[in-house]
Each structure stands twice: as structure tokens, then as C-alpha cells.
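Appendix B, Record 12. Input sequence as logged:
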Amino acid sequence: MRVNMYIKFFIVYLIPYTLYLFLSSCSNNPLPDFTKTKNGLYYKLNDIGESEKKPKPGDYITVQMIIRAENDSVLYDTRTIGLDGSVTFILDPPQHEKDYREGFQLLSEGDSAIFITDAYTFYIKKNRSPIPSGMRLESIIKVEARLLKINSPEEHEKEILAEKEKLEQGEFEEKKILDKYMADSSISAQLISNGMYYIKVEEGKGLTPDSGRVALINYKGYFLNGRCFDFSYENQPFEYLVGAEEQLIKGLETGVRRMHEGEKSKFIIPSHLAFGSSGSSTGIVPPFTTVIYEVELLKVQ
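Logged structural output:
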């Protein structure tokens, strides 16, 4: 069985790719605007930053990157990840010919470039996965990259520790403010779900919104000082699919699941269940900020 598998790989992949390499070596540079490294990777600098610092294997690099197929369809895009659309990873040395990771060693902080490899290298050699239907072994894979930051392992560890201390301090200050608010207001509330408070204002007798159901709610979000920052009252009630991601903040999703149709409740939600250490994307809610939501569960279907 294993012998047959190797024979199939030889016939389907290796022979055509060997022929492709032979034909390529006999032709002129197929990408005249690009420079070819000794390792076979093509690259072209687009923008040049002010720094001269270049990364070496073992460094932590932060990059923005889009990987495209030959037809320009997007295979991977860091812009969908994180706040600044970048990823940080340890730079490994090239593992094989045309490994696009070699390209990062050619860049300085602030530089952007395009690296050209092929489907055989990207899928079979690097990711050890089959080539998608419709692609050829020699199909171009284009990596558009911008190098934002280079850290040595020591610099990276120092940065992580500083960020951890900042988070711990922010959480400590937030907890002091919340504890004082609860003590001063003498609120009778049920402590649920990792530091969140639940106050039932008016009983409901209908259904509970389980995953897969559609819930219709009215809500009002405000800070501990009473200033409102978000509401649906006086507008159209908010309708959402229970259990679907990124429709409600985590604490509000948890709270609504406890309610019954017709119920009115209030939830005091610490930042780790609300807008976190970064605050809201709009900038209205600051980092490490406890919020309060008044919710009316109108209908469950």
C-alpha cells in the first residue's frame, strides 16, 4: 500500500514538476522585474523603510501579509486577524527551495515586497497538503508582505512581560472601581460567569433563548457613571441568532441566555467579558472598562 502511494506521488507530482524545473531552467527569467535568490525565490521590493535592521532566523517578526493565487484570489490575509492586521511569529530559516520565508531575511523594518513561489513549493513542500483543484504544480503563488517589526528573543520576552504587567495593572484598577461601585450603590445582584453580575428587574415566563434560536431584544449600554453609549430603545429592536459569533459581547450573550421571554434584566459586565484590554473598535468604550447593560427579551423564536 505504501509503495503504491509513493509510485502515485512520483507519477502525479514529481515527474511533472521535474519537467517544469527543466523547462524553466532553459528559459530566460520569466519575471524580469524580480530578482532571483540562490534558493530560487523571486522577490521585488516595493517600499523601503528608514531602518537598516534585518531579521535573522530565530528573531520574532511582525508582518502584514496577503497570499494570493495566480488568478489573484486571496488564500490568506492577515488583515482579518488582530487590530492592526498583522501576525507575529518566529522566523525560521528556509526549509527548501523557493521557501518564501527566505524573503523576510532580505527586508528591513518598514520594507514591503512581493515574493513569488509556486503551488508545488507552497502546498506540498511547505504545508504538506494537496494542491487545490484547478491549480497546476507550477502555478504562481504571490506573497505580498510588509515587515513592521523585528525583535530578538530577548526583546520579545521583555515586551511580553511589560504587556503582562500592563494588563494586570489595568485589571486591578478596574476591579477596585467595580468593587467601590457595588458597595456604594448597595445593589442586590447575583454573581455569575467569572465576575459578572445579574440583576433581574422584571420576571419573564416565556422561552429561554437556546443556541440556534432567534432572539429579539431591546438593550441599553452605559458606563458606571450612568452615561449611555449604546442602545436599541426607540429604534428597531435587535434581532440575532443565538450562539452565532460576534453579534453580542460575550457577557451580554451569556446574560441573555439566562433570561426568559418577557424578562427585563440588568447585567454588570467587567471588561474581560465586554470590550477587553483594547476597548471598543469605535473608541467609545475605553480599555479595562466595566459596562452595564439593561436588556428586555421581547421574543424567542
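Residues 153-185 form the longest helix (33 residues).
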